[in-house]
Amino acid sequence: MEYVSTRGSQGASIDFEGATLAGLASDGGLYVPREWPRLTGTEIAAMRGLPYPELAARVMEPFVGDSLAPDRLRALCEEAYGRFAHAAVTPLVQLDERHWLLELFHGPTLAFKDVALQLLGLLFEEFLGRNGGKLTIVGATSGDTGSAAIDAVAGREGVEIFMLHPHGRISDVQRRQMTSVLAPNVHNIAIDGSFDDAQAFVKRMFGDPELTGRFHIGAVNSINWARLMAQVVYYFAAALQLGAPDRRVAFSVPTGNFGDVFAGYVAHRMGLPIEQLIVATNVNDILHRALSQGDYSAAAVTPTAAPSMDIQVSSNFERLLYDAGGRNAAALADQMRQFEASKATRLTNSQRESIAALFTSARAEPADMTAAMRWAREACGELIDPHSAIALHAARASDLSADVPIVTLATAHPAKFRDAVERATGQRPSLPARIGDLFAREERYAELPGDYAAVRDFIAARATPAR
Length: 467
Fold this sequence. Notes:
Elements: E1 3-5, H1 16-22, E2 31-33, H2 41-45, H3 52-64, H4 70-81, E3 92-94, E4 99-103, H5 113-131, E5 135-140, H6 144-153, E6 159-166, H7 172-179, E7 186-191, H8 195-205, H9 209-212, E8 217-218, H10 225-241, E9 249-254, H11 259-269, E10 274-281, H12 286-293, E11 295-297, H13 317-324, H14 329-342, E12 344-346, H15 349-356, E13 359-363, H16 366-380, H17 386-396, E14 406-410, H18 418-425, E15 446-448, H19 452-462
Parallel strand pairs: 4-14, 5-6, 5-8, 6-7, 7-15, 9-10, 9-14, 10-13
Antiparallel strand pairs: 1-2, 3-4, 11-12
Helix pairs in contact: 3-4, 3-10, 4-5, 5-6, 5-10, 6-7, 10-11, 13-15, 16-17, 16-18
Enzyme class: lyase
EC number: 4.2.3.1
Family: Belongs to the threonine synthase family.
């Protein structure tokens, strides 16, 4: 399997190991497979009933290529998913006759990011161990990526992590899950700004010679292809349980940075019979406007009770635009340069037509989110977090045929947003016993201004040179 940049020449490629360790391409683009692997209906049907680690290895094997032997990939999947609190890893829960919840929060940090990052941490250690290299991860988080990435790499050989989060704009549980990890290879940075500011700093670091000349910079955000690859698996897991490949299934996905829903697109390209992908946004609705009107323009970020969706620059949308535009890297590079310069661009007619064949979108107001949480609690006995509620609202508003089941991705445990859940439902969710002492743990993090040079210099003074 070869990987190419969305902004680069089709002639330049790297393998899966290279894409995993690089994260972002040197030209500012994102890595995607040169071709999408395709599974037949018979091959998909043969995956029914497999334990999750075995299913994961089967789905991911075409993307890994020669970088890992099949037996080694399976062993890493067994180790990654052995830490989850549910035997099914990503269990499917029925709400009513057509709506289902895919619970993605049974990992160590109670969010869907664990599904990918537990594996990514092992992949980093595996590949770095081959050549004795050092990897400096720089990442930005709107809440859940940071804790999941830190848990995955804390104490691992050859890797260190610097995680940026917007100061005061994530929940107290999300913050403490990061800042209470005191391993020497973990560095938390609270910046005065938004998630989009933090993400822009991280992208800039990949092209900054003051860092790249001394350190091997890597990524854990969903700009890293390996993370997206691991998320593809749970679409297969859910669809197989609901009758695939003989039955089509739709998914409603709470969306900020577009990585989670893009994984569903990859599953579709692989042959999984997905009827529709519903992109659910809150009032920070750049993706809803892009999909419904062709208007991809950033506005000011509005803080909400669903902080992981308080985003106005959706990095992974570039991957979809690349595919929908016929994989014309030069045209995509021009389009993204326009967006980066003015924070606005328009989708081409061909991009819009291609995307509309699979995707639809919906925007949820705060009242819609609250109503969805109440419905889940009162009608189904389920507590759900604000992000999952936004996706459930979009799912219940869908006009799809009644014979198509709709799976809502439940991306975080409700206890991560206990204040918002309690306001909506009157019930305060409890933290699971495995992190029940979270608020008694010591915290450690640095507070920095929203200034790129300050953040860069902080990292440069503490990171370990590549050699």
